[in-house]
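User:
Hi there, any thoughts?
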Amino acid sequence: MVSRQPSSKSPPSNAYADLGKPLSGWRLRLYTVIFEADTVAGRRFDQWLIVMIVLSVAVVMADSVATLRHSFGSAFNAMEWLFTAVFTLEYIARLLCVRHPARYATSFFGVIDLLALLPTYLALFFPELSALIDVRVLRLLRVFRIFKLTAYVLEYQGLAMALAASRRKIMVFLLGVAMVVVILGTVMYVVEGPDNGFTSIPTSVYWAITTVTTVGFGDITPKTDLGRMIASFMMLLGWGTLAVPTGIVTAEMAAHRGMRAPKPTTRTCHECLSEGHLSNARYCFDCGAPLTSYAHQEEPSERAER
């Protein structure tokens, strides 16, 4: 009698017993509000946080204008500390509600959150840094707050998935473009020569890149008829070159949208903190840890649409 091998699709019940008990109590409620935007409270939290991020970046931009800084410098400073306090509380809350604070702190968005806070505190506690570096450089790091928006907009996740799915095609395309600019740049070096500004093959390849990408700085231009003909061909080639990666990503986005699958959510794994799990998912698609049950709370406007 042949014994059946256990299926590899469903993890055993005790596979993650050593990870400890799942979040519960106030930590679970706080986790749901902060990390999952499919509930009413989670959406409102994200909406207010987006407003705070946009306003804080606007203040940094306005503070860089000399006339505005001279007139409203104290107001900008007070608003900056207000935003810093809010983002500090948010960062602490995120560390408190996750099971692995160090894992979140070293993640992409954890580093972005930290970069949004450090400049203000560094300028306060280490004023002697101004003797070594320009403090304005630290202040410019505050614009990293704008990257926090990607964590709260679902469309960013769709774009990231489309880019990830088309990365091989794009890499092959870029390699093909690199071969074209190296070949044509070498040809232009032979045709034009150092007398017309094409002093070396790397310089000629630089010219080929600016021409294919339709940038055309104009610092190097062909002088011979044959060189101008090659340049014209490269300009026309550049139009089609720019459209190819756009078409690849657009096709992947359309394919992803047309898939007959449950709608992605902002459900976050308690273990690895990966987002975007489907509403019917039982296990994390990255680490395989079991997910908590999904309970989507609809707003009155959503129920009215149904």
Notes: Strands lie at 264-267, 277-278. Residues 157 and 276 are 7 Å apart (CA to CA). The longest strand covers residues 264-267. Residues 24-152 form a domain with the Four Helix Bundle (Hemerythrin (Met), subunit A) fold (CATH 1.20.120.350).
